[in-house]
Design a protein that fits this description.
By secondary structure, the protein is an alpha/beta fold. Helix 8 links the parallel strand 5 and strand 6. Helix 2 packs across helix 3 and helix 5 packs antiparallel against helix 7.
């Protein structure tokens, strides 16, 4: 697709005119573009006849790729808009590259997660990332996020393929009635894993945490039922435990361990 766009000046011009016509018609406050859409959106906005009160959010962009930059004479200039947020994931290998651009209206947002190669899943990975939530949507929403993420997720979810539901159960048990049996650092382990999961696309509300006295046999069983209920083949589940373990004798069918 990128090669086709690059070879055909006519195609580039038609796409540019179409995007600008839609902007004139809809007068959006925010334009979100993913993958090759980021290239098309940038090309169009670079040809605006005047300054626009508009925010551009690009994700999985190949604008920083050397092959793509040649079509812009090797130089990217900020379009005449209010601001531009570029979501970059260093683990996305689909020709993406960081956009090198200086200017007060441009900002790169690091959104690391393990890209799957699926257009719909990776788009959601960018747009629902914790860094995007805090540094983009919160700014656009003026500090109020009620309903914003839900609308973004709905807009980019393809009906033809359901996005995976992600849940995680994190357990940390470090306290013990005997001081010599305590395990330091379990709570920190759980918080670090929770942070890593959120950077990988898990929502905070889908991560259950049980620490020390809250991690009883009953609460763990209840949490495991929640973790495993109504799972589908495409869903993702994570169970993590940090604490003391023990070896248990195992018997085979002859009764010997």
């Amino acid at each position: 697709m990128i090669a086709m766009w690059g070879r055909s000046g006519r195609l580039r011009a038609e796409l540019r005119e179409h995007v600008l016509a839609q902007i004139d018609s809809l007068v959006p406050k925010v334009v979100v573009a993913y993958g090759i859409g980021a290239i098309i959106a940038y090309d169009a906005l670079s040809h605006l006849p005047g300054r626009r009160e508009l925010i551009l959010v690009t994700a999985g962009s190949q604008l920083g790729n050397v092959f793509v930059r040649q079509f812009f004479a090797g130089r990217l200039d900020p379009p005449a808009i209010t601001s531009w947020f570029d979501l970059h994931n260093r683990f996305d290998e689909t020709l993406t590259a960081p956009t090198r651009l200086l200017g007060p209206t441009f900002q790169t947002i690091d959104t690391p997660f393990q890209a799957s190669g699926s257009i719909e899943e990776d788009a959601l990975g960018y747009l629902t990332h914790s860094a995007t939530r805090d540094d983009v949507w919160r700014v656009i929403a003026g500090g109020r996020l009620t309903g914003t993420l839900a609308r973004v997720e709905k807009a980019f979810r393809f009906e033809s393929r359901a996005a995976p539901e992600r849940r995680a159960l994190l357990i940390g048990v470090g306290e013990h009635e005997h001081a010599e049996s305590r395990v330091p650092g379990t709570t920190n382990d759980v918080f670090l894993v929770s942070s890593a999961l959120q950077e990988s696309g898990f929502h905070a509300e889908d991560i259950a945490v049980l620490l020390d006295e809250r991690a009883t046999a009953g609460t763990i069983r209840d949490a495991l039922r929640w973790l495993l209920e109504a799972t589908r083949p495409e869903d993702e589940r994570v169970l993590y435990y940090s604490g003391r373990g023990a070896y248990l004798p195992r018997s085979n069918r002859h009764g010997r361990s």
